[in-house]
Structures are given as C-alpha cells and as structure tokens.
Amino acid sequence: MSTAETTANPTPAGTAELMEQILYEVKRVVVGQDRFLERVMVAMLAGGHLLVEGVPGLAKTLTVKTLADTVRGQFKRIQFTPDLVPADLVGTRIYNQKTGDFSTSLGPVFANLLLADEINRAPAKVQSALLEVMQERQVTIAGETHRVPRPFLVMATQNPIETEGTYPLPEAQVDRFMMKVLVDYPSDEEEFVIVQRVIGPPVSATPVATTEQLAALQAEARRVYVDPSLIQYAVKLVSATRTPEKHGLKDLHRFITFGASPRASISLTEGARALALLRGRSYALPEDMTALVPDVLRHRVTLSYEGLSEGLTPDSLIEKVMRAVPAPPKPLEHEKLVA
Question: Could you say which EC number(s) this protein's record lists (predicted)?
Fold first, then answer.
C-alpha cells in the first residue's frame, strides 16, 4: 500500500506498515530505546503528551528530532531555565517604531513536536504557560487567539539526578501529561553500536510521511474498538489508587495521599487504542492496556510521608494494584469485526 493510499483510506494494516516505515527510519539514527520510542508513537497517535525522566545523554532530543524529520514536521526545542518568562514560550507583541503598529511574534511552542528540556528548571508561571498550550492547543496574545499546528506533541524532560535550583511540577499540572516514561541506560551492546555510529559517517532519517498522514492516523486511532469490559478495567485500576480498601488493598491506603484522576482512565483507554493500531489491529486487547498502566499512573499517584519513609515508589504500588485488579478475558467482539 502506498503512503498516498494510507492517507486517503487508512486501515490497521496500512497504519502498521506506515508506522513501521517511520520506526525504521528513526532506528537508523537512534540505537535502542525501543520501549521509549513506542511510547512516543502511542502518545503521537493518541494526541497526548509525554513527561520523560532520564539522565542526560540518552538520545531523548535526538529521538524527537528524528521523528519530526520522518514525518516532515516542525521541531522546536526549549531549554528551560530559571530566568525564562512565558513570552519566551508563547510569543509576544512587538512595537514597530516606523509604522507605529504592533505585530505578533509567535514563540517556539508553534511546532508539531516540541521538546521542553528540563521543564522543572523554570518557575511555575512558565510551566503553567506551557501546560495551558498543551491543554487548549492555542495561545492568546493581546486578545488574539493563535492555534498551534496539528498534530501537536509536547515531550517534557526532567533530570532526576539534580534537584538544586528546580521547581517541582505541581501534581495538578503533571496530570495533564498522558504518560510519564522512565528512560534507562542502554545495554553494553547498544552502547557499542552508539559509539560506532557517532564516530562513523553521519546518518540522517529520510522523510516517509507527512503531518497530514499523521493527522489521518490519529483519526483512525479514535475509531479503534474498545470493549466495555476493557474500559471498566481501566476505571477499576484508577479507582483502586483512590480507594484501595474497596479492592482488597486495605494496607495501601496509608501509603497514598492522592490517587489518579479520571484523566488516567481516559489516557489508558486512548493509549490502548493507539497501541492496538500500532500493532496492526482495529480492536484493543487487554495486553494493550496493561502494557501502558505503569506509564499512565506513575505520575498520578502521590505517596504519603509514610509511603516515602517505607522506601516505596509509585511503580511498586501500581504493581500491587495490577495484581489485585485482574484484567478481563480477551473480548470476543473482535471476532465479529474481522469476520
């Protein structure tokens, strides 16, 4: 199937083929980080945003930039610093002395893929400006509304090894991110290939899709079938983080101050849809959702002081919740859809 046909009439098979081409081009440049790259693709298809935590030098910037190149999208990177102001992100009005008129200068948030590097190094006012754009997909400058390009994906990074001079993101704002992904060091074999590529001839990704095709794939992701039992499973998982005692987890209640919001249930469902489409299906299965549960919930579960003193982590609590709330059996509805 040609890319033109995929745009005009996207199908799960055509989507999988196109996404495979995109992944192939990215992997020509980026070594390893398969799980991280898959989460970026899921967020892109679902129209969500990513919060990424990892030490410097793990190809976070390179991954997003290469992905933007493969889909012919605009890529912008903002280095967050304590002296940043909201106008540095969204733009401002500039006075022209010759004409006596004001003109609008749009900021770097007007891009398809935006990398907000070390978002916790900027004060709350700047963080709020970015998170407002993420939610509303638009900016208002001097009473005039400007919409950001579609599709629009924000990937914000946090450095876990330095806390001096940082402004932690408030829980209510962190909730706007669809997923929080932890990026780890590459294996020895992967690092060997990384060094070889860096010291060898430069490799660049070839554009294989367009932003219009990406928008069509996002629309196709919203048509993926999700069985009601799977939605109920998402709701039960999220509910267990708020009232664990109702799900046979009485001991967990003292370790959790706040559980996940309804945004988590929505993100789980939308993410399962996108992952199913990425895997070439027009219906979501339980494994599509269970694969994303830690990434969707880890930044939405706030540990109590008792939980922190016990050395617990959100991931360890989420693991207990997943064991207590069983996934539904594979729904039979997909058999009707493919018949």
Answer: 3.6.3.-
| 75 strand-pairing partners | 113
Do residues 108 and 89 lie in contact, with contact meaning Cβ atoms separated by under 8 Å? yes
The C-alpha atoms of residue 63 and residue 46 are separated, in whole angstroms, by 18
pLDDT tens figures, 123-169? 878 887 887 788 888 887 777 788 888 888 888 888 776 666 577 77
Residues in the chain: 339
What's the pLDDT at 4? 43
CA distance 203 to 24: 13
Provide the CATH topology of domain 224-338: Helicase, Ruva Protein; domain 3 (1.10.8)
Contacts of 271 (CB under 8 A, 6+ apart): 42, 43, 46, 48, 178, 179, 288, 289, 292, 295, 296
Please name the residue that has the structure tokens 């069985």.
227
Cβ pair 130, 84 in contact under 8 A: no
pLDDT at 6: 44
**More confident call, 80 vs 330:** 80
Instruction: Indicate if 224-338 has the same CATH topology as 3-217.
Output: no
Across all residues in the chain, what is the average pLDDT? 82
CATH node for 3-217:
3.40.50.300
Dist CA 339 CA 323 (whole Å): 34
**Distance of alpha carbon 240 from alpha carbon 318, whole angstroms:** 9
